[in-house]
């Protein structure tokens, strides 16, 4: 067999597997995590206008999401960190964008259900990857709007998408998706953002509890007005801490961790909505703060190690190499 014949045979072989197993199309996208420090709930019948105002930090850790479509995919399935999940928010994104069955797989480098905006990051990643795989011809603004609507209707978040789609330390001035929402940013220096995830809080259950929602709105309003008088990273942390105490959402362990962080030169508060403490410190105080947080290592969720460490990210969601 000469070289040309052998090449033709190979082509025939590849064609055969392509035809018989079906062609699958895959795309992957990444979206950052986000910690809300304080917020106010803005109800609206129109999910495009519903959302939150408030302030939070976009992280350099997030969620990678792969979408696969093709002959081998017969029904829509969603996986998170290797396990099949209901994934309501991601599923809503898929259902709004297509009837084609897809396999969505997300891998989170942030804890889930702990106030790091994992559901929002997954929804954004799914929207970007789905658009690429199925050539849906949507723009970034439109994909972001879909992710926002999916979060809001499933009550897995209100303002995470607005922050995650912009990057930085985001002040959400007007609620809603990109169509109606308005943001600004705190001009913040580079800083490590430490976290201790102590436990999960279901965002859905807090948002549907009227008494808690009332406390959130009262405390969120004060925090925003105080932040805008002095929009610095340090003042954000102070306002977040007052907000967390005034809403009564803080667990006693979280309180202890926050006090220890403050005693060691840091500024700390609770990540909304999770039983999670996040903390920052001036550069020279970062190590003492880290050591103080490590003391609480045993009570932290172990999945990601004891003290989580991220940076503030100004990056926005993006498609990864095909
Ligand atoms: N990337 C993802 N893909 C699919 N399902 C996800 C993803 N991230 C979170 N979920 C699901 O969302 C639920 C947790 O949502 P919840 O809104 O309470 O937490 P979160 O989004 O991680 O953090 P936050 O408190 O900041 O909203 C869980 O049921 C989890 O399985
Ligand atoms: C509701 C929320 C605290 C959940 O993470 C967040 O989406 C926000 O700040 O709107």
From TrEMBL:
<comment type="function">
    <text>Phosphorylates (R)-pantoate to form (R)-4-phosphopantoate in the CoA biosynthesis pathway.</text>
</comment>
<dbReference type="InterPro" id="IPR006204">
    <property type="entry name" value="GHMP_kinase_N_dom"/>
</dbReference>
<dbReference type="Pfam" id="PF08544">
    <property type="entry name" value="GHMP_kinases_C"/>
</dbReference>
<keyword id="KW-0808">Transferase</keyword>
<dbReference type="InterPro" id="IPR012043">
    <property type="entry name" value="PoK"/>
</dbReference>
<dbReference type="GO" id="GO:0005524">
    <property type="term" value="F:ATP binding"/>
</dbReference>
<keyword id="KW-0418">Kinase</keyword>
<dbReference type="GO" id="GO:0015937">
    <property type="term" value="P:coenzyme A biosynthetic process"/>
</dbReference>
<dbReference type="InterPro" id="IPR013750">
    <property type="entry name" value="GHMP_kinase_C_dom"/>
</dbReference>
<dbReference type="InterPro" id="IPR014721">
    <property type="entry name" value="Ribsml_uS5_D2-typ_fold_subgr"/>
</dbReference>
<keyword id="KW-0547">Nucleotide-binding</keyword>
<dbReference type="GO" id="GO:0016301">
    <property type="term" value="F:kinase activity"/>
</dbReference>
<keyword id="KW-0173">Coenzyme A biosynthesis</keyword>
<protein>
    <recommendedName>
        <fullName>Pantoate kinase</fullName>
        <ecNumber>2.7.1.169</ecNumber>
    </recommendedName>
</protein>
<dbReference type="InterPro" id="IPR020568">
    <property type="entry name" value="Ribosomal_Su5_D2-typ_SF"/>
</dbReference>
<comment type="pathway">
    <text>Cofactor biosynthesis; coenzyme A biosynthesis.</text>
</comment>
<comment type="similarity">
    <text>Belongs to the GHMP kinase family. PoK subfamily.</text>
</comment>
<dbReference type="Pfam" id="PF00288">
    <property type="entry name" value="GHMP_kinases_N"/>
</dbReference>
<keyword id="KW-0067">ATP-binding</keyword>
<feature type="domain" description="GHMP kinase C-terminal">
    <location>
        <begin position="226"/>
        <end position="294"/>
    </location>
</feature>
<feature type="domain" description="GHMP kinase N-terminal">
    <location>
        <begin position="98"/>
        <end position="168"/>
    </location>
</feature>
């Amino acid at each position: 067999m000469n070289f040309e014949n052998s090449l033709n045979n190979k082509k025939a072989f590849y064609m055969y597997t392509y035809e018989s197993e079906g062609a699958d199309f895959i795309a992957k996208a990444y979206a950052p995590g986000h910690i809300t420090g304080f917020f106010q709930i803005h109800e609206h019948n129109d999910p495009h206008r519903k959302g939150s105002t408030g302030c939070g930090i976009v992280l350099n850790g997030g969620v990678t999401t792969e979408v696969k479509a093709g002959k081998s995919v017969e029904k829509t399935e969603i996986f998170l960190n290797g396990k099949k999940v209901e994934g309501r928010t991601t599923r809503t994104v898929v259902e709004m964008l297509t009837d084609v069955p897809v396999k969505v797989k997300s891998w989170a480098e942030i804890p889930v259900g702990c106030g790091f905006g994992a559901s929002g990051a997954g929804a954004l990643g799914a929207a970007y990857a789905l658009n690429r795989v199925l050539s849906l011809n949507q723009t970034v603004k439109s994909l972001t709007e879909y992710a926002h609507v999916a979060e809001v209707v499933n009550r897995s978040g209100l303002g995470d998408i607005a922050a995650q789609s912009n990057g930085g330390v985001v002040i959400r001035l007007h609620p809603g998706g990109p169509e109606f929402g308005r943001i600004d940013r705190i001009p913040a220096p580079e800083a490590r953002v430490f976290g201790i995830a102590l436990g999960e809080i279901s965002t859905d259950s807090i948002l549907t509890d009227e008494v808690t929602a009332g406390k959130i709105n009262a405390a969120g309003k004060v925090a925003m007005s105080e932040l805008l008088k002095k929009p610095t990273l340090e003042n954000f942390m102070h306002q977040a801490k007052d907000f967390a105490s005034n809403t009564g959402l803080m667990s006693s362990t979280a309180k202890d961790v926050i006090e220890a962080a403050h005693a060691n030169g840091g500024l700390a508060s609770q990540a909304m909505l999770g039983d999670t403490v996040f903390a920052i410190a001036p550069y020279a105080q970062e190590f003492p703060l880290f050591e103080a947080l490590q003391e609480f290592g045993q009570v932290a969720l172990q999945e990601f190690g004891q003290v989580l460490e991220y940076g503030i990210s100004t990056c926005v969601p993006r498609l990864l190499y095909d």
